[in-house]
Amino acid sequence: MLSAKSLFQEILDNDESYRLFCSIAASGESQGGWENARIAALVPASERELAPRIARHGADEDKHGRIFNALMKKRGLEPVEIPPDTDYTMLLERYGIGLAHEKLKDDQPLTVQDIVTYLAHSRVTEQRASEQMDLLRKHFADHPEIGRAVKMISGDEDNHLAYCHEELLRFAYAGHGRAIQRTLRECALAEIRIYRDVSLAVMAHMGRILGWSRPRAAVLAAGIHAVYAYERAAGWRRMVSLKMPERRGALDGPATVAPEFA
User: What is the C-alpha to C-alpha distance for residues 133 and 212, in angstroms, rounded to an integer?
Assistant: First the structure.
């Protein structure tokens, strides 16, 4: 029976597909770490109290990248160069979602609107990350090789999502509500399209590595298109709603330390 658990188990059991999966994940997390670190450094003076939380967000993402690299090292695997069509983070940037890297490489302070844009982009992408890690935690929390990593990263992603809700609501109460909703909608509609394209690309690369038959590959592709159809019709709305999280100040304090996997 084809299921999310059996599909990932197949990827996990093969060194080459596992290496590609971990390499893609490590690359995206490390890129997110760099982006958040730059944003923290460029926060406008009026929002300097937010800088430590943004820096904590970046430190968490960087930690996740190190965890995925450590998981590969534990098997004696080296990271592989990821195919461009699987680079979720860079494709988002290319399509104008979030803050442009050219702006982040500059030393000019960001504006308050830039911070609102960053938080709206993060609220959308962290929704995706939280859901994906929750799925992995559901099936692999007790796995001897990846269980600890899955639980730690999943907890962090939940914290990131809570932080985005709390900060966006603060900005909404300060008069940025319309800009927030407009940006959230634009980000969500773009993200679901890019996620579909990246999912198709990842499954195509995995299929070649694992020798999937054409019928099986077609079934997986159809499933990805079905998810996109649902998200395009109504599912995207879960990415744009805002509510005060039960846990306030989720990113206050220092980042947790990555466990040893070697």
Answer: 25
Residue 205 and residue 86 in contact, taking contact as beta carbons nearer than 8 Å: yes
Q: Which residues contact 113 (CB under 8 A, 6 or more apart)?
A: 176, 179
pLDDT by residue (tens digit) across 190-199?
Answer: 999 999 999 9
**Contact of 163 with 57, CB cutoff 8 Å:** yes
Nearest to 47 by CA among 126, 124, 108, 113: 113
- As given in the structure block, the two tokens for residue 38 are 């730059």
Triad 135, 251, 182: Cα angle to 5°: 75
Q: Residue type for 205, please? A: H
- DSSP codes joined into one string, 155-217: HHHHHHHHHHHHHHHHHIIIIIHHHHHHHHHHHHHHHHHHHHHHHHHHHHHHHHHHT--HHHH
- CA dist 189 and 176 (Å) reads 20
Which residues make Cβ contacts (< 8 Å) with residue 19, sequence separation at least 6?
72, 75, 77, 78, 79, 80
The candidate with the shortest Cα–Cα distance to 249, out of 120, 125, 162, 129, is 162
pTM above 0.90, yes or no: yes
